[in-house]
């Protein structure tokens, strides 16, 4: 058995947490880098400020001659020199090779020159002043270059950090979307498949639930649900068995009644023959014997119908397969062609229309319905057969008539079904008799014709297939029989 749904959700949750932590870490690193660059910028700015101040006090000293200005210039030079030495590593990121050494050298020269200035005079002082000015100018120029590079590096660093943050956020977003897609594919899609199967079962499909993958929860649910369906089928079979026993009681009662009449008539006719003896009127004897023979044939017909009904009862599971409906109908017409005018049947059925049935038993249904149409309407009757596939809501029976079968009575409107209509232009069935045509031993024609079991057998077979059968008045003026069957061939294709 495969991994559980819970573990998959946990893995996705853990992945999202890791991605969020990675994004937070990336943001922290980016902000720390910017903070470091800002600190370096403060050092460079202070160094630049020291260089500017020392030059300002130097120039002020040349104008005023105040030794305090000279001391202030020297203090700022010493502060700048000390700042370079203390922050050499930070400043090195903005300086080219040798620039820091050069800066320290000119600052040292500048500071030393300022210290020597009071002790010199004349030409030596003038040469020293020139040296101090050159050193101060170089120091100021170098610090300005460092400041410009620091600003450029800071700007570049912010842009890089922004790009890295955008890239990291995009990567996290893509990975989260991929995780959601994987979660939907591995969890939501199987659940949706189970939901579709449950909806089909609720609509009347007799297929079992299949697990879309090997996730433990889905496999366990599938096994439990199929076990429930098996239990329901078993109980349904028990109910059908009880119904058959009840039907058997009706059959026994009907057989007793149906056979009692012809047997009584035979007994009466034979008693009359026995009383007349050999000297009786030959015409009367012939009439009584023919009457006994007719009643014997009637009893044989009843027994033959019972035998046919018993042979049609399933003694093993139905052999269902996906077959062309038109092929089954053509086979039914071939079976009646020798005794009934099958050429008077007009059929409009799509060759591609298929149903999942036991073909031999369904063929017997159509034989019974066609034979009933011709026997009730006579040799001149016209029969029309049509078939449609669609939703039950669009193919429900119209008002009037009588329908038996849970598919139509309790079926859901979205259930896919195939409806077969068999219409004739015969005399039709009285409205009062429509509710009784599927009862055993019911005859819409004269009492002496038929076994009264054909339509009863037909509705039994249709209900065994999970379908329904109905009878109503036909627009052609005769009778309309309609059969509804669950449509599952298209779902499997």
From TrEMBL:
EC number in record: 2.7.13.3
Membrane topology value: Multi-pass membrane protein
PROSITE patterns noted in UniProt: HAMP, HIS_KIN
Pfam families reported in the protein's UniProt record: HAMP, HATPase_c, HisKA
Enzyme class: transferase
Domain of life the protein comes from: Bacteria
Membrane is among the record's keywords: yes
Subcellular location: Cell membrane
Reactions listed under catalytic activity: ATP + protein L-histidine = ADP + protein N-phospho-L-histidine
Protein name as catalogued: histidine kinase
Protein's organism: Thioalkalivibrio versutus
Organism lineage: Bacteria, Pseudomonadati, Pseudomonadota, Gammaproteobacteria, Chromatiales
């Amino acid at each position: 058995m495969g991994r559980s749904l819970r573990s998959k959700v946990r893995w996705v949750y853990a992945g999202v947490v890791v991605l969020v932590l990675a994004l937070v870490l990336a943001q922290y690193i980016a902000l720390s880098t910017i903070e470091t660059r800002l600190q370096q910028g403060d050092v460079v700015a202070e160094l630049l400020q020291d260089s500017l101040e020392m030059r300002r006090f130097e120039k002020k000293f040349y104008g005023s001659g105040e030794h305090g200005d000279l001391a202030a210039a020297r203090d700022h030079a010493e502060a700048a020199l000390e700042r370079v030495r203390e922050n050499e590593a930070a400043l090195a990121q903005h300086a080219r090779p040798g620039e820091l050494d050069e800066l320290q050298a000119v600052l040292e020269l500048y500071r030393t020159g300022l210290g020597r200035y009071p002790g010199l005079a004349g030409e030596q002082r003038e040469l020293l002043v020139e040296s101090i000015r050159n050193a101060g100018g170089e120091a100021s120029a170098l610090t300005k270059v460092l400041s410009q590079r620091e600003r450029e590096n800071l700007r570049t660093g912010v842009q890089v950090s922004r790009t890295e943050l955008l890239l990291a956020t995009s990567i996290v977003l893509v990975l989260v979307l991929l995780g959601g897609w994987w979660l939907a594919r591995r969890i939501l899609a199987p659940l949706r498949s189970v939901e579709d199967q449950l909806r089909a079962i609720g609509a009347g499909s007799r297929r079992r639930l299949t697990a879309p993958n090997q996730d433990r929860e889905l496999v366990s649910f599938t096994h439990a649900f199929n076990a429930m369906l098996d239990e329901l089928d078993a109980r349904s079979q028990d109910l059908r068995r009880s119904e058959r026993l009840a039907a058997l009681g009706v059959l026994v009662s009907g057989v007793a009644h149906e056979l009692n009449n012809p047997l009584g008539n035979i007994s009466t006719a034979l008693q009359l023959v026995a009383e007349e003896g050999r000297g009786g009127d030959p015409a009367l004897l012939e009439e009584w014997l023919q009457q006994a023979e007719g009643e014997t044939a009637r009893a044989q017909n009843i027994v033959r119908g019972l035998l046919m009904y018993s042979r049609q009862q399933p003694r093993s599971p139905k052999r269902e397969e996906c077959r062309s409906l038109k092929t089954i109908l053509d086979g039914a017409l071939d079976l009646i062609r020798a005794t009934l005018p099958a050429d008077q049947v007009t059929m409009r059925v799509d060759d591609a229309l298929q149903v999942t049935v036991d073909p031999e038993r369904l063929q017997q249904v159509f034989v019974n319905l066609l034979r009933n149409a011709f026997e009730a309407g006579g040799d001149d009757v016209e029969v029309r057969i049509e078939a449609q596939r669609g939703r039950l809501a669009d193919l429900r029976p119209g008002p009037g008539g009588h329908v038996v079968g849970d598919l139509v009575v309790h079926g859901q409107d979205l259930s896919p079904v195939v409806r077969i209509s068999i219409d004739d232009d015969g005399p039709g069935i009285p409205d009062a008799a429509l509710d009784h045509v599927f009862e055993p031993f019911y005859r819409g024609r004269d009492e002496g014709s038929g076994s009264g079991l054909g339509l009863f057998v037909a509705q039994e077979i249709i209900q065994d297939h999970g379908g329904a059968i109905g009878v109503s008045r036909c627009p052609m003026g005769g009778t309309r029989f309609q059969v509804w069957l669950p449509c599952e061939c298209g779902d499997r294709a």
